[in-house]
Write a structure and sequence with these properties.
Length: 588
């Protein structure tokens, strides 16, 4: 369906044409003075320059034409040359009728679907998920859902950190503890046990222990580096250990992400890119892009227009070891080969921006991506505590994601139990759903690139711009619809009628914005636009609800129209929260 603003602009365009002016001036926008009008057209101001006339003259002539349009209820030319517009109630309700009939609430599917890889999550195996990984998961999941809803083919890849010294450290520590295991016996040729020689709890303890010890004990570190080298050069026992580490870790990660309502299509990691490195590097050398500088193999990526220094992209260290950059470049090679994406979006902490500038430039320069493939960095800001510093536990350590969610759920549970009496089990189930909305909405309602303050109290409040407020609104609608149906009638869409009050019109106008908002949220990879929209929509609904006796009215026709309006509002809100990655309970 065309967007409301497109339809109104088309009306204005023909009015300009009919009045003898270029139709390009007929652009209608939302009013920035909602106290005066609903929409406005400022085209006469610009046209005045071309036609050397006073803007008000043009505005008056156009307004007269527009007065004949069925789309508008009221048209006013005001000094110095604005055209203030109010939409016609039937025109608006017809538009909503179209939304009700359309299976996608008026959102068109992309005509030429793109293949988009989204690289998000980025957890490191054998380390517990911590708050640093929360934003990537939440934002990436929403960006993925929005792009999919827009009709694109989207592949979400978790891109595990499963390569490098951390693996050697774990192997070394395991060997210290359980030297008798067959993985450490270089002569062993038999089958290795199918069962991993550790649990997730042990694994999570092993890594920090090993990491701390390597900083104090040079021999230990040397051993870990040697183990890393042997692992990377195909030592069978170590590769089997690596797959055990991956299995145990990934099982745990999947459980954690499931709690966040986050799902990945691919569980690939840095290790999957390694086989692509040798050929890639060889080609970069052959093509004359990679050269040796200070013993390392590098590619220059600086550009004349740079205002800050962009250091060369390092491919191989003097000892031949590859780096984070090399892995990301090889991952691009792999993704191009396997999925031919039109776009790769990286949802990563914005402090890694320089790394991605180097990687993207190097990939372009060396021809790793096609001309048409876009590489996008969606860098997010830091989640801070109330003190304005990166979020920590009370003891000052890195906060595990699990604990953070637990804190939120407990807070939510208290609030829910205080609001009305219910069984503990029911309250817990509701607290989990609402708690997730608190965390996700609290994050997504900020522009991704900005830092924000994680405020449990504010996020879990049912008032203000919060997830729970949105859910309360949805639950309120569901409850009205349920009560209506309890009288033996069917709450059906398809009856939205011309608004009977200002608050009803306000709600209808918000609903009509939906497809435009989804389009903007997709184009700008901006879930915060959806949040801002549902906050306005929820406010418009609540205003209407407080001013209207929906169930109490005697006027059955009006009631049927309102019930339809509620159905539509519920669909739009539920679609939006699904795109944000959370859901609403039946009751609260
Ligand atoms: N594992 C990395 C980290 O914890 C994030 C990975 C981001 N994605 C990427 N393709 N580099 O910092």
């Amino acid at each position: 369906m065309k967007k409301m603003l497109e339809l109104l602009s088309a009306e204005a365009a023909s009015a300009f044409r009919a009045a003898g002016y270029d139709e390009k001036y007929g652009r209608v926008t939302l009013s920035n003075r909602p106290d005066l009008c609903e929409y406005q057209c400022n085209g006469a101001m610009a046209a005045a320059k071309e036609y050397h006339k006073a803007p008000i003259m043009i505005a008056q002539a156009v307004a007269e034409e527009l007065g004949r349009s069925e789309a508008f209820e009221d048209v006013q030319a005001v000094n110095p040359g604005f055209i203030n517009l109010k939409v016609n109630e039937s025109f608006l309700s017809d538009y909503l009728g179209g939304m009700e009939r359309d299976g996608r609430l008026g959102c068109e599917k992309a005509e030429n679907p793109k293949t988009i890889v989204i690289d998000y999550g980025g957890p490191n195996v054998a380390k517990p998920l911590h708050v640093g990984h929360l934003r990537s998961a939440i934002i990436g999941e929403s960006v993925k859902r929005i792009a999919r809803f827009a009709g694109h083919k989207v592949i979400g890849d978790v891109h595990l950190g499963d390569w490098g010294l951390q693996m050697g450290l774990i192997i070394t520590e395991l060997r210290e503890r359980k030297p008798q295991l067959p993985y450490f016996d270089g002569q062993y040729e038999g089958e290795y046990p199918a069962e991993a020689p550790f649990t997730i709890a042990e694994l999570e303890e092993i890594y920090p222990t090993a990491s701390a010890r390597s900083k104090e004990d040079a021999d230990y570190k040397e051993a870990a580096m040697q183990a890393t080298y042997e692992l990377q050069h195909g030592r069978r026992g170590y590769q089997t250990l690596l797959s055990h580490i991956l299995n145990v870790s990934v099982t745990d990660l999947k459980r954690n992400y499931a709690n966040l309502n986050v799902e990945f299509d691919l569980w690939k990691g840095e290790s999957d890119a390694q086989p692509y490195i040798p050929d890639m590097v060889q080609k970069m050398k052959d093509d004359g892009f990679a050269y040796v500088s200070d013993n390392a193999l590098v590619v220059d990526v600086k550009e004349e227009t740079d205002t800050k220094e962009v250091p060369p992209c390092m491919l191989l260290k003097s000892d031949g070891a590859s780096l984070y950059t090399t892995t990301d470049l090889a991952t691009i090679v792999e993704r191009m080969k396997l999925y031919h994406p039109d776009e790769i979006i990286y949802v990563v902490d914005k402090r890694q921006e320089m790394h991605f500038v180097q990687v993207f430039r190097c990939a372009r320069k060396c021809g790793l991506v096609d001309e048409g493939t876009e590489l996008k960095f969606l860098g997010f800001g830091t989640m801070n505590g109330k003190d304005g510093k990166p979020f920590k536990t009370r003891e000052g350590g890195v906060m595990r994601l699990e604990y953070l969610l637990k804190d939120i759920n407990e807070e939510m549970l208290k609030k829910i139990q205080a609001s009305r009496p219910m069984e503990t089990e029911e309250a817990e189930a509701i607290a989990k759903i609402v708690g997730l909305s608190a965390v996700k909405y609290g994050d997504l309602s900020n522009q991704a690139s900005k830092d924000y303050i994680f405020d449990v109290d504010r996020f879990t409040s049912s008032e203000g711009n919060t997830g729970p407020y949105i859910l309360y609104t949805i639950v309120r609608i569901k409850s009205i619809l349920r009560k209506y149906e309890e009288t033996g009638r069917q709450a059906a869409a398809g009856n939205v009628a011309p608004a009977r009050s200002a608050s009803e019109k306000g709600l209808q106008m918000e609903l009509a914005k939906f497809n435009g908002v989804v389009e903007a949220a997709y184009e700008e990879s901006a879930p915060h636009k959806l949040c801002a929209y549902i906050y306005d929509l929820a406010n418009a609904f609540n205003k209407f609800y407080h001013e209207t006796k929906i169930l109490g009215t005697e006027d059955e026709e009006a009631q049927a129209a309102w019930i339809s309006l509620l159905c539509l509002t519920r669909s739009v809100l539920e679609t939006c929260i699904d795109l944000l990655g959370f859901e609403a309970p039946e009751k609260m």
